[in-house]
Amino acid sequence: MSSGKRPPDDDSKLPTYKLVVIGEGGVGKSSLTIQFFQKQFVDYYDPTIEDQYIIHCEVDGNWVIMDVLDTAGQEEFSAMREQYMRTGRGFLLVYSVTDQRSFEETPKLYEQVLRVKDKSEYPVLLVANKIDLVSQRKVTEQQGRELADRLKLPYIETSAKDPPVNVDAAFHELVRIVKSFPSDEDGEKNRNSTTGNGRRSKRSKNKCSCM
C-alpha cells in the first residue's frame, strides 16, 4: 500500500540499491524483472541480453532507488558473472521449480557470490520461480526450503505469469535484506553505474510501493 507521496525530485537524497538477478538460463529471470518493472508477463526473452533497470520504489514508507541488473544465464556468459557480482549489493538467486538442474546449480552460484565478495554470508534471496506450472513441477517447496535452510538464506516462491505471485514482494524483501546487512562497501549510495557489454539501460520513475 502506498503512502500517496511522490518520490523526491532530487535523486541524490535517495539511497540506491544495486540488485542483481542471477540464475541458470531459462529460469524466468527476465520475466520476473519485466513483470516487476513493466507490469506485464513476457513468456520469451532473449537469454543473451543483459538489461539494467532503474526505478523509484517506496519500501516500508521510505523511497529508494532500485538499480537492477537482469543477467544473461547462458553458459557462454558465465565468465561475466564475477564482473557483475562485484558491483551487486544484493542478489535474487532464481531457479525454476520445473528445472531440477537449475535448482542443483544454485549452491554453486551462491558460493561464487561469497567468493567474489570475500564474505561468509551476503544479502541473497533464494527465489523458486514458475510455481504456476504445477503439473510440470519437479522441485517441491519442501526441497526449496531445505536448501534455503542449508545455505542460511531467506526463501520465497514466485510466478511472473499474470496474475503474478510474490514478484513485487521478492524485490522489496531483497531491499530489506540489504538494508539490514552490515556493509563496508557503501553500495547503497554509489550511483556510478555504467552500462556496456551489450547491456541496455532502462530508467523509470514509475511509482512502486510496498508497505
Automatic annotation (TrEMBL):
CDD domains from the UniProt entry: M_R_Ras_like (cd04145)
Region (Disordered): 183-211
Keyword S-adenosyl-L-methionine in annotation: no
Membrane topology according to the record: Lipid-anchor
GO cellular component, one term: plasma membrane
One Pfam family here: Ras
Location relative to the cell: Cell membrane
Taxonomic superkingdom: Eukaryota
Zinc-finger as UniProt keyword: no
InterPro entries, alphabetized: P-loop_NTPase, Small_GTP-bd, Small_GTPase, Small_GTPase_Ras-type
GO molecular function: GTP binding
Keyword list, A-Z: Cell membrane, GTP-binding, Lipoprotein, Membrane, Methylation, Nucleotide-binding, Prenylation
Gene3D superfamilies: P-loop containing nucleotide triphosphate hydrolases (3.40.50.300)
Biased composition (Basic residues): 199-211
Family label: Belongs to the small GTPase superfamily. Ras family.
Protein name: Uncharacterized protein
Source organism (scientific name): Gnathostoma spinigerum
